[in-house]
Design goal:
mainly alpha, 7 helices, 61% helix, 0% strand
Length: 140
């Protein structure tokens, strides 16, 4: 868990260190290199950073043309588009997201599993497992 907390702190540092002129290019490299779980966490804190603003996060996701407003379903391009938009157009939300990564790393670690996207090309079969046994559920 300590490694993951350190990784989230490093992610926050990296995002803050990117300058405005080269942000999108730098962010592209950062998002590309993130493991799926950390990408899901980043998408989750970005989505959560919008709070009670004039537009809902679903409205923003729609306006940006994201494939999903669900952080667990966001692709790398979606996370990058959301990250760049948030940094450029909603700096207060960007600061809240970075602060969440930095100040609440244990909470981010604990909620990470439900928000971690399924790796590209891997089917999510978790719903096919019976909860008590871990064996495949009986067909209906």
């Amino acid at each position: 868990m300590t490694e993951r907390i350190s990784a989230l702190d490093a992610l926050a540092d990296t995002l803050l260190a990117l300058d405005a002129d080269g942000f999108e290019q730098g962010a592209r490299a950062v998002v590309h290199d993130l493991p799926d779980g950390e990408r899901g966490l980043l998408a989750s804190v970005l989505a959560g950073s919008y709070g009670a603003e004039e537009l809902s996060f679903a409205d923003i996701a729609s306006a940006l043309g994201l494939d999903s407003a669900d952080p667990s379903l966001m692709s790398r391009p979606d996370v990058l588009r959301l990250l760049a938009y948030t940094r450029r157009e909603r700096p207060a939300a960007f600061q809240r997201a970075v602060r969440a990564l930095r100040e609440h790393p244990q909470q981010m670690h604990l909620i990470g599993a439900p928000f971690a996207p399924v790796p590209d090309g891997v089917a999510d079969t978790s719903m096919d497992q019976a909860p008590a046994t871990g064996r495949p559920a009986a067909a209906s």
